[in-house]
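Example 3.
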Amino acid sequence: MTKPAKDEIHYILLKLHSLTGIVPVGAFLVIHLSINSLRTVGVWPFQLAIDALNNLPFLILIEIGFIYIPLLFHSLMGFYIIHVGKTNMFRYRYQRNWLYTMQRLTGAITFLFLIYHMGTTVGAKLWEGKHYFEAAPFLIDILNGEFQTWQGILIYTIGIVSATFHFSNGVWGFCVSWGILIGKNAQRNGAIVFAAMGLGLTFLGLATVLEFNMNPVSVEATG
Amino acid sequence: MRRRTAASKGRHPKKGVALPLDGEVIHKTMTDKKITFKIKRQDKPGSPSYWQNFQVPYKPFANIISCLMEIQKNPTTKAGKTVAPVTWDCNCLEEVCGSCTMVINGKVRQACTALIDNLEQPIALEPMSKFPVVRDLQVNRSRMFENLKKVKAWIDIDGSHDIGEGAIMPDSDRAKRYVMSECMTCGCCIEACPQFSLTNSFMGAATFNQVRLFNLHPAGSMNKEERLDAVMGEGGITDCGNAQVCVEVCPKNIPLTESIADIGRQTSWQFIKNLLVK
Ligand code: HEM
Ligand code: SF4
Ligand code: SF4
Ligand code: FES
């Protein structure tokens, strides 16, 4: 069967957008928030985790291949999708229509937040050339500072809530568009489960912010 | 509710018919109550649109179509200017053909079942915004028909040879298909969809529902792959954003979001199959 390749490419690109939202980008978000929440147990486990990550072999390739490229792809496709639709949630006031609009809004907010967040962390790390065991003390110092101002806390709160909402509502969207949740009840129950997951992730993220704010401890390099 | 029951039993209050409502109804008729309309007009395809206000005498149980007929009899605006009568489409007058679909007080619905007594005044009438306007409240919905052709929304039974008897269908499938088959191509789901616009190529919920309807039929499933291929491109199933407004506005209560998710599943398998088999 021959058909215009343009249609096939369109289908594959949109499916890939949907898939990259879950793996690797969504998986990264879950791992990232979980590892960060080690900070609430103590600064030592947190530093150990950062040390482990910064001593991974081929770190820069892993970051580019599994995080930056999929994230950039998901974001650019996301902006294309935002551009195609036209929200009408004020005219047709239904819950799902509101969530549809929020999915787009939180995607855009997360994008802006990530520019800021990556600029102040990985960006600074690479710029200053702090690698391996030097990375953790450098990053922890930056974070200790960031969470001392209300502006910093506000930016991180908005960023975290946007990302966790976008991810959990996105998992629901993924399950519907891939036909995993089909029936009305299945879709509603799925929404409840993913909302609970989203609240859990939000809690992890905000607890970490609070810990950094209340307890800024500097550390020495391990190695 | 009480009034609606009386009307649906065909006992419209004619003078002399003793209905408990009559006293009130005749009283209202005699007070020269008026119904005010604000209608978005357009003289021909592509020409600019403009609003005009009209008033018609109040009649109990009136619907939008009966009021448009009043305006047609006396096409004078509220300001007293005589203008070309407002045009509209209608046919069945019982919400089964879908031709009278328009935007009434901001929401898309059928004009024939929109009762004046339930609407806030002035009543705003607009043509649907997702289809090209033909004139006034009439739109051209042929894009929906073209999409039905693209997905082969029919069952092939004619061939150069006898293809024998059809297969038996489980009753549970028949029941599901019955609900889906009630679509009247009215366009409500499309008008309310945030992903559908005049300029893009999105096919809309009604089309995906038809793919599911015919793929679920034992004989129709012989063309299953062709139907799926037709919705796996630009404007196809991937372009739905799951806003689920379609299912809220469908006058036939078709489980459109179930159909969309099911077609999502069928196309995903089809994609894997295309990758591995073809
Ligand atoms: C923390 C990073 C992010 C994660 C974990 C994430 C995750 C997801 C997931 C799981 C989906 C559901 C896919 C589907 O509907 O099938 C999704 C959808 C979406 N994402 Fe993201 N995303 C992220 C960042 C972004 C960014 C930066 C944008 C840029 C605007 C964006 C825009 C979108 C849009 C517009 C959708 C809706 C697609 C649709 O409903 O058709 N996302 N995202
Ligand atoms: S699916 Fe419902 S809203 Fe859409 S065209 Fe058919 S009857 Fe109308
Ligand atoms: S679910 Fe939303 S985006 Fe998809 S067809 Fe229905 S209204 Fe349109
Ligand atoms: S005239 Fe047929 S649905 Fe209104």
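The beta strands of chain B are 34-42, 49-57, 101-104, 107-110, 123-126, 133-135, 138-139. Confidence is low (pLDDT under 50) at residues 1-20 of chain B.
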